[in-house]
Amino acid sequence: MIRDLNIFRSMRRKYHSNPLLGYLNINSLRGDKFRLLRDLITNIPIEILCLDETKLTNDFNDALFFIEGYQFPPYRRDRSSCNTRNIGGGKMVFIKDGLINKRLLDFETKTAETICLELTIKNKKWFIMFAYRPESIDRKVFFEEVKISLDKAFSKYDHVVLLGDLNVDMDIPSTDTKGYLSNLCDLFGLSNLVKGKTCYKKDGGSSLDIILTNSKNYFQSTKIIETGLSDHHSLVVTCFKSSFKKLPPKIIKYRDKKKFKETDYLEDLRNIDYKEIDNAINSYDELTKRVSSTIDKHAPIKTKILRGNDSPFMTKELRKAIMNRSRFTNKYNKWKSRENFLNLENSRKIVKELTFSAKKDYFKKASEDGIITNKKFWKTMKPLMTNKGIFATNLITLEEDGELISDEKDLAEIFNNHYVNIVENTVGAKPSPMGNPEDAMADESTVKSIIEHYKSNPIILKIKENSLNETFTFPKISRK
Fold first, then answer.
1. Nearest in space to 194 (alpha carbons), one of 25, 37, 74, 42
2. Is 195 helix (H, G, I), strand (E, B) or coil?
3. Which DSSP state fits 369?
4. In the prediction, which pLDDT does 337 show?
5. pLDDT (tens digit, 9 = 90+) per residue, 418-433?
6. pLDDT digits (tens, 9 = 90+) for 191-200
7. Domains, the chain, ordered by start
């Protein structure tokens, strides 16, 4: 297992800018397994990871499965079961922040356990289906549903990937009863990227976990990794040849108040020569300049850079402890001595304790002064109470003329041009200059045209349908 993880770590370092696509039949995510999983993909990130047989139910809140740096909430498909003693199945998909994706519920099968995604990398759209076929599902029904879904996908997408555990050994054709899987591969031109044994439930092992695609030349370095997370199955992972742009760092400007003394500050304000300011050509600008200079003297402006997915509860002490943990991890990987192992374990313990303390302080500060606004309360407490909208990324991406744009300056320019020219774009003519009596009727006509245009807007119509006394929720608008 250690050898496999070292190979996996080397692969991650070599292709640090290329997204990894992974699949693991974890056989239950209950108990301590999630912590082990989180440690693994925190140290060796996998951009898209699907877990099967999570054996979770709707009782498990999404907030329990938050992983820093990954989009929240993860995609889930739990198997409904009234028998709590025999819970099986269940899927969960983790996707790294910064990857453009959306879930395709219309493509997901009714009986077969699947999750379907649209993933965009370098202006290429990929259809990805994660599938699991337990022996309890009839083979004919399963493959017929998958075939229908893939048929829809190929009509819309050029690049398709199907990965999962179909309980068919690719190395033993006789296990493919009636040739359902081979016929599926022939029909859609799919090739299996996984070469080797992935499950060791029986002697000699079997190749049950697959990554099928019609675009095998877009992938590289497919590996089978023993992680110790599953009782029988190994992690199968492959690497896209395309790279993706990670979340940009956050640049924050703030005033340093460490050495701020209110008495000295007020004294300097009193010592400003206000008579000289009154005699200046532009008194307001001069006053602003003098006061700003005084403020900068006592509370200078400083800049700090945070990672794009920095946690809100992150502290300087915790950040330093995480850096030490990474340092000891690298040291242990190079030289596996007893001393390095103990240092690594100690650093992990410190990070765990500081993380707990930081989270506790973060939530405590929300009400320590006895005064809290609704906005502040929900921003702080929402992660503990609901799954809606928490830990969401603020990354905005627009598709303009087939090109994906996420740069903030380019986005600002697009929005600015849209609203500056909104009248011309709506009615097909530029508005007349304001204040011209001769064009008053034309201006009135333009305004009426705009009003009529927005009267037919589906969102406006829905607002009209709802009474003011009823709760109204705006329709979800795609960020694309």
1. 25
2. coil
3. T
4. 86
5. 888 877 777 667 766 6
6. 999 888 888 8
7. 2-240 (3.60.10.10), 250-306 (no CATH), 312-392 (no CATH), 398-465 (no CATH)
